[in-house]
Structures are given as C-alpha cells and as structure tokens.
Amino acid sequence: FKDNDRFNVLYSTPSCYIRAVNEAAAAQNVEFTVKTDDFFPYASETHAYWAGYFTSRPNLKRNERLGNNLLQAAKQLASFSKINGV
Amino acid sequence: EAPQCGYQSCQPLKDGFVNVHLVPHTHDDVGWLKTVDQYYYGANNTIQNAGVQYILDSVMDELKKDPNRRFIYVETAFFWKWWIHQQDFVKHQVKAFVNSGQLEFIGGGWTMNDEATTHYHSIVDQMTWGLRKLNDSFGECGRPKIGWQIDPFGHSREMASIFAQLGFDGLLLGRIDYEDKVNKFATKTMEMVWKGSDNIDAEIFTGAMYNTYAPPSGFCFDIMCNDEPLVDDKRSPLYNIDRKIDDFFAHLDNMTKVYTTSNVILTMGEDFHYQDAHTWFKNLDKLIYYANQRQENGSKY
Known about the structure:
The structure holds two protein chains of two kinds.
Chain A: E1 7-11, H1 14-27, E2 33-35, E3 43-45, E4 48-49, H2 58-80
Chain B: E1 18-24, H1 36-41, H2 52-65, E2 71-73, H3 76-83, H4 88-100, E3 103-105, H5 120-138, E4 146-149, H6 157-165, E5 170-173, H7 178-187, E6 191-195, E7 203-208, H8 241-256, E8 263-268, H9 277-297
Parallel strand pairs in B: 1-8, 2-3, 4-5, 5-7
Antiparallel strand pairs in B: 6-7
C-alpha cells in the first residue's frame, strides 16, 4: 500500500454513503439482488440462535400489547371529544 | 441563509478511488443494563460506564472545531431529554449543525425498536413520536432519511415496509445470520433492494454492515477502548502512522472484496461511545489526513 491510488477517506453519514452507493451502482450498471423474505431467525454463531427472546418475559410482553390497546382507545376518545355538535 | 443540510451537505467524493465513508456514531440503548435515566445522567457507572448527557455535550463541542466533522444521532428519546435542558445559545448552535449537515438524525424514532416482538401499530407510534419531535425542533433538516437498525436481533419484512412507507431512502442493518453473512460475502450481495410487501409499493435499498456496527480492529479511539492512539511525531518511539495506515488499508482491501461499488461505510463508534468525543475525533482527523496524504506522497511513506 505504499502508493495509495485506491482509497479516499472522508467524514460521512449513512445518507451520504447510500446516495454514493446508488449513484455508483447506476454508473457501473450494478443490479442489486431483490430480497422478498425476512432476516429471521438470527444466529450469531453455531448453536446460538436468538429465538428465546420471542417469548421471554411473557408478562411484560402482554402488558405492552394491552397498553397499546388502551392507548389507541384513549386517542380515539380524545379526538371524539374535540368534535363539536355531536 | 438557506440550510445546506441533506444530500447537498455530503463531502465531495473522489472519482477513481474507493471512497471510505467514516461515520462517527454512538449506539445508545434506551434502557438495557441500566434504566433510561441512569443511562442519560451517567448514574450507576459500576454497572456500565455510560452517560448520554455527556455524549451529546461533548459531541457538540467537537463539531464546533471543524466543519468537516460529522456525527449522527439515532435515539430521539435521549436527544429530547437533552434538548429540553439546553440554553438558547446551545440550541442555536445545534440548529446550525443540523442545518449544515454536520449533525444528522438517522432512524429518528423514539428508540431503535425490536423487530420480532413489536406490533406494527406501536412501531408506527414510536417512530411518529420521535420524528414529530425532530420535525417540530428542526423542520426539514431534522428529517432522517435512513433506517438504522444496527442492533436488533434479526429483521422483519414489515419493518422494511414501514421504513419505505415513511419515505426513507435506505436501511442499514448490523446483525444478520452468520451463515447468511458468509454467503453474502461470497456472492457480493451485502447490498440489496428489499421488497417489503407483496401488496403495496414498499421497496427500500438495504445494506448489511461489514462489522455489525463496530470500528475495524485497532481503530477504536474511544475512552472506553484501549487501542493505540495515532502517533504522528516521527521522533517519538511510539510513531506508528506508517504501520497503522497499512493496517487500515489492509482492512479496506478486505471490505472492497465483498461490496459492489466504489464505496464502503465504516461505523466509527460502539455502545455509549463519545462520552469524551475528543479522543475519537482527534484520531479520526489524523486517520483521514495521513491516509489521504499517501495519494499525494506516493511511495514517500
């Protein structure tokens, strides 16, 4: 790497990076693969599948779902209360 | 003056070179080993050394020193706690950083939500809450353009669909299955177009990161790391610029083997980094300077 004719290093952000990738891909006629499924399950190594947390702390999980139901109902009632002439 | 944020604020790239995008960032869990408030104030540091209020103070001080420096912030729950405590003077300064693109919000939800156990309804609510605060405070320049799911353990197609429908231009992922990653390295498919739905138009450019969200080995310059700092005094016995730049280029060489375009992204930060942002930026300034010096100096080094 004595003569660096390959790398240009700069401060950047994810949006600047992604714009650069897309512009370079268009210029170089790179076609990205299309993904239509998900990224589950996640395994970080052999015998380490992170699927336990799908069910861990069931009480907390249930409480969050109930909380969401209450929040939606509260938002609807709050907006109804602002309607005049009903 | 007109804001220069967003894509206009991107640093110029160099044609004919692999452009190496250094992205300084801090991954701030909204509660994990400590509570949200313990993380924010830096309490109970025997559990984990982390204080988000210091991170944001310290980053703003460092952005002042050089307009080329960049920082991204992700978790609006923490940012909002900090923002409402700032004096007008600081708020004006932060707005200037946002308007110039030096400080960019990425993701921008109240938190970086889980994708496995969350209901789409709650995801929309938490994204809306975070984005609303950013919009009220900064307007268009505060609008995130990129999904930043660097730590969730697996990724759902619905999340891709939601990001696409939020109007995001891209999505970056940290954790993908280790065998999937081996395969993607071999087939150069770390970058893809993710079609988030069979029913609606919800496509989003998605990239999987090389090293989850960590910096290359040997280039972690946070106070929490113990990597050697860059020593550029040739009379010092600790002088290491030649060797460190060689190491850096060797890492980049490996990265270019698995990505398709002449661009790579390096995530320069880890969990609750930048409590003393100076140690990071001081060394990143040198890394950029000495790496690019070789373009001009050729074999001199």
